[in-house]
Structure formats: C-alpha cells, structure tokens
Amino acid sequence: MKETGESKEQQLTVALRIRPLSDAEQEEGATIVAHRVDEQVVVLMDPMEDPDDILRANRSREKTYMFDVAFDFSASQEEVYRATTKGLIEGLISGYNATVFAYGPTGCGKTYTMLGTDKEPGIYVRTLNDLFRAIEETSDDMLYSVSMSYLEIYNEMIRDLLNPSSGFLDLREDAKGVIQVAGITEVSTINAQEIMELLMKGNKLRTQEPTAANKTSSRSHAVLQVAVKQQSRSRDVLQEVRFARLFMIDLAGSERAAQTQNRGQRLKEGAHINRSLLALGNCINALSDKAGNKYVNYRDSKLTRLLKDSLGGNSRTVMIAHISPASVAFEESRNTLTYADRAKSIRTRVKKNLINVSYHIAQYTSIISDLRSEIQRLKKKIADQAGHIYSITYYPFFCGCWLCL
C-alpha cells in the first residue's frame, strides 16, 4: 500500500460574528462600539474618545478590520454555517482534513454558534446532517465508516465526555506525527440522530460554572472529532481508500478576572483557560510571523498540541471569532480582533489522505495461499530438526541417580 496525495497551500479562513447587546449590558448603559460595515469589514471605536477632542483626532483608537466574512446580530445560524463550514464537507469526503473552531471572550456566543439550540441548531448539527446526507447520496457506489469522539480539556486535563468514568487521558504522537488521545471512546455510526444524542449527552457533562460575565460559562475547551473513511464497494479491486478527520471545537472564553469577578477555584480555572489561550495566541503569532519564524511552540498546552495540524499542518481550517459590540467589552473585543486579524496570515499545506491499493483481490488470494504453504514448510522443517536433536540427545537407560527415578 502506498500513501499518496499532493499537498497544496491553503489560507486559514477567518470569520467574525458580533452578538447582540445582552440585557446586562443594556442595563449598564453600554453603547455599541463594534459595527459591521459590509460583508467583510468591521469597525471598532474607542468608547473613551471624545469626538470633539481635536488634539486626539490624529491618534484615534478607532480601527477597521477586514475578514473573509463578517456577521452582525441579524445573521442566522444557517447563514453562518453556509458561509464558514458547509464548503468543507465535500473536501472531507474526498480525503481532506478540516477544522472549525470558535474563539473569543466568555459570553460572546461561541457555544451558541457551535452547538446552538433545539430550534436554532449550530454548526455541529448542521455539519453532521449534511455529511450524512452526502454519504447517503453516494452510498450505492462507496462504502463508508464514520466514527466520532467528544472530549473536553479542563484545567489542562483531558476528559472523555462520552465516557467520563475513564478518568483523565493523555495525548500521544504516532510515528507520522499525528496527535492521538490515548483511550478515547470512539463511536462508529452512520446515523446523524444517534451522534447528536450522544453529543447532547456529552455536552451536559461538560464543565460549566456561572461567572459575572456569563451565567453558563463553559470552563473547558470542547472538541468533537469525526473520522470518515471511504472506499469502493467493488469486490474485484480496491483502487482507493480515502480517510479524513474533522475537528469542531468550542473553545473556553478568554477572560479578565476583574470582568468575571472570579475567586478561589474559578480564579484558578480562569488562569488555566488563559494559559492555554495564550499558548494558542503565541502559536498564531508565530505562524503569522512575516519574518518567517520557523519554530512554533505547540507544546505549551494540550490545546495547542491537539490543534497542531489544524493551525499549521494538514487541514483546511476555519476560525470563527466572536465579540460583544458593547463599550464595556472594548478591551476584550480589541484583543480578539487583533488575534483574528493575525490568523488571516496563517497558511497550511493540505494533502488528500488516500491509500492506493495496487494488488488485485485474486493476487491477494494467491499471496495468502503462498504464505500458508511457506508456513507449513517451515513448521515441517522445525519439526524435523527437533526430531533430529532428540535422537542425538536421548539416552535409553537410567543412571540410577535420584533425578532419573
């Protein structure tokens, strides 16, 4: 078997979603400082600036950002999905790895975008529905196998959300440099409804705690991995086997202790969250370095180790950044926009994952038959040699010592 597939350069796709003002922000009297100008452009204004201050006019902190696509509060879940993720499905079936991850401060709608609600499902549900629909349309000619796993990274510990009793798991790197989670539960199915039931069950086990910034704050990074394998149904010859992995990731929110008013355990959790997101930010900075910095430190956190291929390796990757439009969230929004803007420069080298099988099935049958004959020949030879040794060393009498009695 020979692994093939030419690699080609792919730019990371970056989208931005601005959520509506929350009730708490409106009660606080916050103003809107983040505006979507058109389908790609977003403007962030400094709420501390006085428009009549002529002296500060030339050093205004108002800044314009351009992304592959931008959404404001009026965008539907379907619009976000179609513009960011739907196009990855065809490539996934063809053997191209793909990743979609939601990034941004806590309380800005990342989980809503990825998981959604019963009435407004998010990217998880819509992607799986379209994936299985595409599989069904070609299932007459092709044989598919689909498996999924669902985990969280909490306080730098990996926990299986489909089997929490398995304890904390470790990351392993195979001979090809692919990062795997040792002992993770993998569920094989081609039923979208079954996967969604498992996903909803796993999400209820995800670590969540209320903070001042978000009453249902996700305190962990949730990672859904879907593996797809495809091969011809023909029994005469297996010409090609394609396989690909899809990561869909809901990151924990970046946060400031003053904003969340965390204390004790929540404060420690926030430190771990910020540590892993800082490592992610450092990787983004290194990967987008125009000076050509070759070293990227993925080992600072388990999150970045798991995202190694998604950020700088073999994957078509989409980053959906989330911000609040409120003036009280200006600093968090500016930091998120800065990271998202840098991520636009990241390029990956994607390669179709396929194995060409060059032997005809009849040839395999012949090879197996030859191997069996060789095994029988070797067994007979070993038996003959053993008999020869026995005939030389066997003594047909007893010496009379206690060992011979």
UniProtKB/TrEMBL annotation:
Domain of life: Eukaryota
Coiled-coil parts of chain: 361-388
Biological process, per Gene Ontology: microtubule-based movement
One Gene Ontology term of the molecular function aspect: ATP binding
Entries under InterPro entries matching the protein: Kinesin-like_fam, Kinesin_motor_CS, Kinesin_motor_dom, Kinesin_motor_dom_sf, P-loop_NTPase
CDD domains xref list: KISc_KIP3_like (cd01370)
Function: Plus end-directed microtubule-dependent motor protein that regulates the length of motile cilia by mediating depolymerization of microtubules at ciliary tips.
PANTHER family: CENTROMERE PROTEIN E (PTHR47968), KINESIN-LIKE PROTEIN KIF19 ISOFORM X1 (PTHR47968:SF13)
Record protein name field: Kinesin-like protein
Species of provenance: Gouania willdenowi (Blunt-snouted clingfish)
Organism placement in taxonomy: Eukaryota, Metazoa, Chordata, Craniata, Vertebrata
